[in-house]
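Quiz preparation item.
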């Protein structure tokens, strides 16, 4: 009886208060929900726009890799030299999937098309009007967003093809196209948004459908298109397309002459989100009036159970947005909000781990450990793509791309560490400065391709001649190499240098010399026990001076600098 009377005493006097509270609370939650929705929509919209820019840059990189790689493909070079259209198509067919491009156009060195993988029956015409083709004829690798004879909108890279004698015999053009509905459907699935492509002011491909039919070719807002094309500027806004409201983004695509020849449309539908927000508000009011018949404690509990995890998620999302990945999202509910919290926690953990792995890799590579990379297989999806991209960039920055051995930057990092260790432990240290004898003459005689092959063989011989894990070799520049020998005195350095010199002399490097001469190297040695006042630069200069004396004395020899 007491509990029943108590409820009545609480509920009856509180009906008007609860009514005002329900209305106020619903208004408040509706505004907060709407604000949160708008924030999430805007955040996702901006994220997708950034992802779109990354996607375009990524495809630009794919075309560069495809064009350059195939321009060095021996089978491709042979087919182009023989102008065998059928063989060209056969050689290039598997390269689409391998390099993630949509088409190849192969021409001779004057821009006459030999084959098109996307239109095999169409060849023999000239594409010399394309600036990237002109660039390739001038020996450059040229990348452009540009219309073509068959493909209306694409990013494409043209690379020159050289025969074994160094003469240009053709051009390989690789491209990723954006002018087909099928290609845009892939982007729609990737970004979860509608995509359209305009050639000029004409929509030529779109994922947006009305009554089951694509709206490609339909009219569009002329003022927006005029603004984007004439001003060559991006446009953000909201509009209705095909009966649906969208947050829209227009990106002008400019050709090599800095003219807008196409426009990329990106639209995220908001009607369903607005409708969902309205439904939530309506249901809240209905539920609030029903709650008038429930005790105030239950109402408070229900409202707390709804609002608390959202507030927790919102705070943690703000922390992540501000760059703080050390978050602990304590949402223990088993519903969708709990799933969102766990997913957000997982994302923060993955990003935190990726940053930690990158930091560790950078620290190790600064120590000269150029082969240290973190394990990308621990990441999945786009995180794996990001991790692989970081590894690729790290490799480019720390290794010589021709020989595969560390570059000068890596050498400087390792030298700083070994130099400090030698000073601290009072150990000897030696540096070998190595130069390929008469390499310019060799390069001019046999061509750059054979010259590159010779440098690779020399670098391999140097590396194989070093037995200790602490010994370090790098490409110093051009035909020069440098070797760091920690804890090695002058006699040990001379022994190792001689081993390297003999190894190179005995290497099978083509020379085609009637007098039986071989490719040789000269080596200058600088050895000593560094002290705090000793300059690293002087130590290297001593090795360089010794190298000069070795070459002056007749080359193919080792010279020890005078302390």
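Solution:
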């Amino acid at each position: 009886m007491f509990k029943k009377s108590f409820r009545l005493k609480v509920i009856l006097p509180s009906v008007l208060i609860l009514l005002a509270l329900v209305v106020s609370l619903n208004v408040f939650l509706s505004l907060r929900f709407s604000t949160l929705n708008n924030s999430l929509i805007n955040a996702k919209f901006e994220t997708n726009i950034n992802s779109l820019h990354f996607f375009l840059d990524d495809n630009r990189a794919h075309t560069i890799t495809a064009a350059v790689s195939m321009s060095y493909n021996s089978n491709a070079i042979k087919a182009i030299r023989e102008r065998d259209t059928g063989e060209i198509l056969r050689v290039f067919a598997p390269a689409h999937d391998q390099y993630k491009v949509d088409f190849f156009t192969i021409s001779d060195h004057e821009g006459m098309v030999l084959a098109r993988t996307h239109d095999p029956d169409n060849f023999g015409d000239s594409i010399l009007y394309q600036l990237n083709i002109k660039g390739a004829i001038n020996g450059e690798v040229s990348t452009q967003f540009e219309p073509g004879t068959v493909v209306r909108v694409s990013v494409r890279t043209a690379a020159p093809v050289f025969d074994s004698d160094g003469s240009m015999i053709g051009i390989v053009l690789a491209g990723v196209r954006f002018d087909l509905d099928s290609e845009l459907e892939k982007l729609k699935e990737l970004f979860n948004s509608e995509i359209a492509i305009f050639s000029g002011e004409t929509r030529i491909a779109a994922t947006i459908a009305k009554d089951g039919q694509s709206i490609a070719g339909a009219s569009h807002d002329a003022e927006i298109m005029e603004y984007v094309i004439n001003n060559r500027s991006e446009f953000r806004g909201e509009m209705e397309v095909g009966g649906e409201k969208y947050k829209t983004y227009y990106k002008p695509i400019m050709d090599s002459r800095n003219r807008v020849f196409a426009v990329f449309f990106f639209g995220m539908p908001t009607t369903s989100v607005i409708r969902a927000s309205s439904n939530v508000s309506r249901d809240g009011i209905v539920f609030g009036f029903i709650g008038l018949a429930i005790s105030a404690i239950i109402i408070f509990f229900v409202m707390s159970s709804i609002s608390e995890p959202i507030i927790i998620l919102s705070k943690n999302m703000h922390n992540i947005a501000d760059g703080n990945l050390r978050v602990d999202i304590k949402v223990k509910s088993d519903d969708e909000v709990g799933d969102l919290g766990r997913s957000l926690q997982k994302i923060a953990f993955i990003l935190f781990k990726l940053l930690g792995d990158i930091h560790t890799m950078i620290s190790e590579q600064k120590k000269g450990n150029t082969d240290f990379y973190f394990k990308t297989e621990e990441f999945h999806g786009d995180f794996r793509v990001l991790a692989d991209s970081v590894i690729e960039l790290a490799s480019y920055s720390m290794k010589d791309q021709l020989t595969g051995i560390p570059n000068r930057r890596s050498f400087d990092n390792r030298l700083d560490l070994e130099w400090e260790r030698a000073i601290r432990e009072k150990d000897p240290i030696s540096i070998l400065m190595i130069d390929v004898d008469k390499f310019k003459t060799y390069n001019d005689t046999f061509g750059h391709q054979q010259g590159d092959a010779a440098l690779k063989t020399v670098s391999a011989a140097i590396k194989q001649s070093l037995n200790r894990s602490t010994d370090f070799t790098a490409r110093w520049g051009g035909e020069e190499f440098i070797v760091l020998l920690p804890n090695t005195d002058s006699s040990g350095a001379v022994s190792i240098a001689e081993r390297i010199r003999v190894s190179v002399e005995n290497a099978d490097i083509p020379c085609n010399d009637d007098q039986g001469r071989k490719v040789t190297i000269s080596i200058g040695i600088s050895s000593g026990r560094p002290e705090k006042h000793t300059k690293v630069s002087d130590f290297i200069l001593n090795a360089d001076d010794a190298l000069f004396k070795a070459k002056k004395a007749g080359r193919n020899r080792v010279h020890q600098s005078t302390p």
